[in-house]
Every structure is written in C-alpha cells, then in structure tokens.
Amino acid sequence: MSVTTGLFYVFSAVMLLAAFRVITARNPIHAVLFLVLTFFQASMIWMLLKAEFLSITLILVYVGAVMVLFLFVVMMMDINLENLRRDFWKHFPFAALIGVVIALEMSAVLMGGFRVVEEPSTAVVAGASNTKELGKLLYTQYIYPLEVAAAILLVAMIAAIALTLRARKDSRFIHVSDQVRVKAKDRLSVVKYAATQAAVPTPAADAASEEKKA
C-alpha cells in the first residue's frame, strides 16, 4: 500500500467519523465544529486527487466564510436544547426513511460499478496546471453559465441586504446625512436669563408670613 492510499484511508475515516458526529452531537456548536472538520478532510482528499483548486476553494468558501458565519449565528442564538431533544423522536421516523433511501441509492451505485466511458485520449502536457485549464474552460466554453450563476448570486445578495434594511417602527434611527449636515447652533441653544429674579409671592406664602408676624 502506497503512502497516498494510506492517507486516503486516514482522511476518509476521519471524515466519516466527523460527519457521523455532526448528526449525533447534542451541542449545536460542537456539530458545527465537526462539520468544519469534515470539510477539511474532504479538502485533503481532493488534494490527493490533484484537484488543488477545488481543495482551496472548499477551505476558503465553506470553512472560511459559510461555516464561520453559521458558527457565529449558532453562538448568538438562544437555542433551547431541551426542545430540540424532545422533538428529535417526533421527526426520527421520517429521518430514518430518508437515510434508508440514501443508503439504497448508494448501494445500487456501488454494486453496479462505475461505467467508464472511453473518450479520445488527450496528451498531457508536462507541468500543466489543472487550475489554469479550469479557468480557461470557465471563461471560454462555460462563460454563459458562469455569468448566469454570478447574476443569481448577486440578486440573492441584494435581496438579503434589502431584507435586513427594512425600517422598524420601534427603532430609533437617525439618518447619517442628517447627522453630517447638523450645525452647532442646531445642537445647542442658549437661553438668556436675568442674573437675579425677585421671588413671586404666593397667597400661601403671604398667609404664613402674616401668621409669623402675629
């Protein structure tokens, strides 16, 4: 057994164990961390397959952005673990059914074998970069699907920002432009009063003073 094969078995075993812990961990933060470990092991397997671009993309996009965002969201949310544990057995039959269907589909694929379609052999250039070749395909042959995907992601990003910028009636908000245009005289108003003012006599005060004199 070669070193590459041994590393593949090690990475695969750790990935399967981490994926199993994602669905069995009771703490949601631990589940997210196990999912990050799963992505790391999948990235290492892609690196063994000489798919460097996909490996680095998995780390940067999923681990560096998506999973970190999920982790912060889960940590800031007040999740009631008792309710999650109580609802687990209610949804368990449907989840078990989905798991059995996925297992049967994977068994059918693995038992049937992989059909290799013979294609015309292409000469492999020494020192060629698969990332460079992938970039050429993306920006030449698949340029229109790439632009459509970019437009969909842009619309989704704008929609997410628009949903978070909805004005609430119970929030105290001051527009930034109003704060910038404000002047000192608008912030502070000086009211002039006399240095000394005579006390205004009241009927109760007059009656009290007359009683004291008497």
Structure in words:
- It is a single chain.
- By secondary structure, this protein is mostly helical.
- Among the domains are: 79 residues, NADH-ubiquinone/plastoquinone oxidoreductase chain 6, subunit NuoJ (Four Helix Bundle (Hemerythrin (Met), subunit A)); 40 residues.
- 71% of the residues lie in helices and 0% in strands.
- The protein contains nine helices and no strands.
- Helix 1 runs antiparallel to helix 2 and helix 2 runs antiparallel to helix 3.
- It is elongated, with a radius of gyration of 34 Å.
- The chain starts with a helix and ends with a helix.
Fold blueprint:
Layout: H1 3-24, H2 28-48, H3 52-76, H4 81-112, H5 130-138, H6 143-164, H7 176-181, H8 184-187, H9 203-213
Helix pairs in contact: 1-2, 2-3
What attributes characterize this protein structure?
single chain; 214 residues; mainly alpha; Four Helix Bundle (Hemerythrin (Met), subunit A); 9 helices; 71% helix; elongated
Mean pLDDT: 77
CATH topology of the domain at 1-79: Four Helix Bundle (Hemerythrin (Met), subunit A)
Gross morphology is elongated
Strand content: under 5%
CATH superfamily of the domain at 1-79: NADH-ubiquinone/plastoquinone oxidoreductase chain 6, subunit NuoJ
CATH class of the domain at 1-79: Mainly Alpha
Number of strands: 0
Termini separation comes to 119 Å
Derived from helix and strand composition plus strand pairing, the structural class reads mainly alpha
Number of helical segments with 4 or more residues: 9
**pLDDT < 50 runs, ≥5 residues:** none
Q: How big is the Rg? A: 34 Å
The topology string of helices and strands comes to: HHHHHHHHH
Largest sheet: none
Approximate helicity band:
over 70%
CATH architecture field of the domain at 1-79: Up-down Bundle
